[in-house]
Amino acid sequence: MASAHRQEEMAALRRTDAIADAKIYLMTRTPGSELSMYELMTRVLKTVLESKPENPVELVNDIIQHVKKGWYVPKPDTLKDDDKLPSVVDACNREVKSITALHAANTDSDDANDLEMEDPVRNLMMMASIFEEGGVGIGFEEMFRIFVHLKELARSRTNLEKVRFWGKIFGLQNDYIVAEGTMKDGVDEEPEEDMNSFPSKQSTEEEDEEAANQEEDGEGEEEGEGKKKIKAPVIIPEEDFRTGTNMKIYYVCTEPGENWIRLPNASPQCISVARQIKKYFTGNLYAELTCYPPFPGQEAHYLRAQIARISAGTILSPVGYYAMPEEEEDDEGGAANIPLEINEEYEPPGMDDLCENLQSWAHSVRYILPQGRCTWYNPLPDAGDDFDDENEDDEDERGSLSEAVPLAPESGPVILTPIAEDRSSAPVEAWSVRRTMKLFPQYSHAIVSSNIWPGAYTAGNTKDFDSIYVGYGHKYEVEPFSPAFPPHPEPEYRLDPQIEEKEDPTVEMEEAEAAKANEDDEEEEEEEAEDGEEDGGDYD
Length: 540
Prior knowledge:
The protein is of the alpha+beta class. Among the domains are: about 25-75, no CATH class; about 100-210 and about 235-325 and about 350-380 and about 415-470, no CATH class. About 35% of the residues lie in helices and about 10% in strands. The protein has an 8-stranded mixed β-sheet, sandwiched between helices. Strands 5-8 form a two-stranded antiparallel ribbon. Strand 10 (about 445-450) and strand 11 form a beta hairpin. Helix 2 (about 35-50) packs across helix 3 and helix 6 (about 125-135) packs antiparallel against helix 7 (about 140-155). The longest helix is centred in the C-terminal third of the chain and has 33 residues, at about 505-540. Residues about 75-85, about 220-225, about 330-335, about 385-405 and about 535-540 have low confidence and may be disordered.
């Protein structure tokens, strides 16, 4: 009986497996078909049960064709039910609107001088062909779309003298398209609302400094002696508009056709911290950065700091194309903060030199010091201004500061230094140079690529050249990036045996200590009695 029951169970299992295998076979879709046999027969049976025809066997072929046709035809109300147009259609509408406005602006210009005036936007399509010829860039089609919207940016910002496509930085959610602008002479910094939309943590530091200054002046200080004055740390100020790291202004957008958003100015604090961290961009300018050391701002400030670092290290020009302005330097750097001028006596080198010799290319953006500025700022305050002569308690401290050795100003490579002098900490050369075409060298251009900042390229010939960056905004590293650990917290007080907490004694220890105390008391009483007897004998 047991064996018969076992055989029935095995047969039932085989039938279950056979049914499962058959269902899997029927549900398998053949290559090139979006409909399986199981789905087809299910819909055919459903149609027959809903319609209940008189002769379903004769109409089975028509029913199958009807089911297949309804399966492949999309629902007619899919687009009608959407309140908003798809992103692709919306983007196309923006493209058509921008091109129409640009065409209308060119056709409505009756004055021939308007067409002969210098265009504020660089001929991006010519450079796009050169970059595409060298195998770099983002494609001719996207370059054209960006070129159209750069024209729109120049038309909407009348205070811009020149607009250039700086590059594209990839993000996890959205990418950043970056435009570089040069302000007209005599025009102050534009008070855009976009500047106020990126609050920096610099404000809190300024509040701390103001509170510390109030404590120094005696405001908010309680009466009493022993109160020590706390001096706030010196904050390195950012460079003025149109100088140093803020020589140019930058606009970004995530897609061609969207509104251009101006980035905040570059600050030394953001640049210094950006050199110590490595974060991928998210595509959200308002995102907070979680890192150590803490970053004093949002992703917009981090993006601006990386743009300043990449520009200072990768924007090039042929040697001799630019010249230093003929102005004397003053105490604050003078000519170091004045834009470069095109050399009227420029003698272009040969294409062979541009394509083979790194001495033919030079940096055209100023070096950023370790401090985070192009011009050095002395962080040590004047000792005479920090202490009151009437305060006699601080004489020793005042004397030590007056005798302190002043800090040595930071220095770096001078602008227009050939890139052949660059050195890389990684085991790779700092730069690589090649031709765009080897088959027809007479029609080729030079391509200079940075190995320190992968994605940075400079292409062109002796007169027409431009720099572009397409990458993630990170430096090349031999080893994987490892964030720094925070420092160990300082102890609250110095450990001392006198302030250490003792363990509670047990009952046995307390009884032993009490017994010992009693013995000591008895010994003292006996000694006192003996001393009393000796004293009585003396008086007799």
